[in-house]
Amino acid sequence: MRWDRFFDDLEGQLASEWEAERAALDTEAERLRLSRVLLRERLSALMDRGRETPAPSFEVADGTVLAAEVTGVGADWAALEGGRSGALIVPFGSIAAIGMPHADVLRTARPAAGPGTLADRMTLGFVLRDLVRRRVAVSVHLVHGRVLSGTIDRAGADHFDLALHEPGTPRRAADVTGHRLVPFCALAWIRLDAGAALI
């Protein structure tokens, strides 16, 4: 009888140690999985979030805080829709922080639903070249706080050419007041003129 209790006690201790070791391995596996999650994946998970909670807030490099929903995600940029502010393009490198409810923080840390899409591979340059093709007027917000209004004439691999003109007006040669070459690294975010859709 004493031996039965002794062996039961040993069995209980072994089971307890096994559970503790398994929990430690599960925790380490979760840490390893989280170490591989990309910002792009977390932003993509925000695209199908419920709208019953406030929109995420994006703090960008120029100090602006944008309360907006994520409507698209590319290789190195996110498309946001901020109520009456219209379509916005924010490079990942300009995002300083993202505020969101704790439930969204946890949900976006889950594994991606499936294989990537074509949009996941579109770079900022690709999106800007589409704006060039469609002659969309934009407001370009630079990381140091300055805002330039105009139309993007050309988009290179790491910069774009902006023809400056009054906001809300079409690009006409007579209305262009100057030109700027803007490196992607100087870009905080872009606002498309009202009514313009992204891609």
Q: How many DSSP helices?
A: 4
Q: State the strand order across the main sheet.
A: 3-4-5-11-7-8-9-10
Number of strands: 11
Name of the CATH class: Mainly Beta
The biggest sheet amounts to: 8 strands, antiparallel
The fraction of residues in strands falls at 25-35%
CATH topology heading = SH3 type barrels
Number of domains: 1
Overall outline: elongated
Task: Give an overview of the whole structure.
With 199 residues, the chain is of the alpha+beta class. The chain has four helices and eleven strands, in the order H-H-E-E-E-E-E-E-H-H-E-E-E-E-E. The strands form two sheets. The protein has an eight-stranded antiparallel β-sheet with strand order 3-4-5-11-7-8-9-10. Strand 8 and strand 9 form a beta hairpin. The model has no long low-confidence stretch (mean pLDDT 85).
SSE blueprint:
Elements: H1 2-34, H2 39-46, E1 57-60, E2 65-67, E3 69-73, E4 77-81, E5 87-91, E6 95-99, H3 102-108, H4 124-134, E7 137-142, E8 147-155, E9 159-164, E10 178-183, E11 187-192
Keywords for this entry:
SH3 type barrels; 11 strands; eight-stranded antiparallel β-sheet; 30% helix; 199 residues; three-stranded antiparallel β-sheet; single chain; 4 helices; 30% strand; alpha+beta
In short:
Helix content is 30%, strand content 30%.
